[in-house]
Amino acid sequence: MIRIENLTKTYHPLTVVKNVNFTVETGQIAALVGTSGSGKTTLLRMINRLVEPTSGKIWIGDTDVTSLEPHLLRRRIGYAIQGHGLFPHRSVGHNIATVPRLLGWNETDISKRVDELLDLFQLAPDQFRDRMPHELSGGQQQRVGVARALAAKPEVLLMDEPFGALDPVIRAKAQADLRDIQRQLGTTLVIVTHDMEEAVTLGDRIAVMDKGNLLQYGPPAEILKKPATDFVKALIGKGERPFHLLSLTRVADIAEAGSCEGAQVSPDTSLRDALAQCLWHGSEQLSVEGGGVVTLNALREHAQGATT
């Protein structure tokens, strides 16, 4: 669990984070979203003390982060940034092993952990362990960056615009992979993004920030259905709101009995993605893996319901 209490950061005369309070429960993903200069990255960097607060408290579990030396704290918290930040002169395996080595793990445990994470991120250890970062695609580099952040089994993972440099197709896959892996590991995650769609896709909770202020904090559905301010409403976008809401419901929730030929979707596919597939293929219904169908009419009804 992460608890933020009355957190403030001032660079005189400007206060960039203003008396912020929220809690991220254990195993949740909190997405910090806002425009450039809203204070979200500064807030994130205060959690691992890359930036020192002017006032306020940050707790990880029962530990006040100021009670630990900053370098020791950072070894307990995974941190992944846009552009991955890999050491270019170190192999993939050595990059992932960075923090475990600093913590004094033995080489057998390090090797086991490296291979475990490569498998988890669908990068075959025999093929990728000894490659250099420049030999990887952008999406592969980003996966290795996240694997490195998770290497020492941190209870908290911080991510600052980690997928911003990826193209849309790779980005969507990276988001889905991150969500799956986070659920498997139970890691508490805070991610900074400027993209409301990414916040809705990943977040169990969304924190909307503007000019250093926390305007609203809550589940995605609450943010979308009951925006607290005009700024939050504008950030969501009137035209995008129904599509964001469709992202929160899975095909399994509206699947009907039946079968059909052609395109097939996973039960975990969002209604937004299922609607896109129907329109792309010109299909009236899609087959659902494991049985059943989802119809275009049902998808349209949910889309219309989301606008009310």
% residues in beta strands: 15-25%
Number of beta-strand segments: 13
Number of helices: 14
* Distance N to C terminus: 35 Å
Oligomer: single chain
The mean pLDDT is: 89
Q: Give a quick account of the main beta sheet: strands, pairing sense, barrel closure.
A: 6 strands, mixed
For the largest sheet, list the strands in their spatial order. 6-7-8-3-9-10
Residue share in helices?
A: 25-40%
- Shape, per Cα inertia axes: globular
Question: Structural class given helices, strands, pairing?
Answer: alpha/beta
Report low-confidence residues grouped into runs of 5 or more. none
Radius of gyration: 21 Å
The SSE order reads EEEHEEHEHHHHHEHEHEEHHHEHEEH
What does this structure look like?
The chain is built from 14 helices and 13 strands. The chain is an alpha/beta fold. A six-stranded mixed β-sheet has the order 6-7-8-3-9-10, with helices on both faces. It is globular and about 60 Å long.
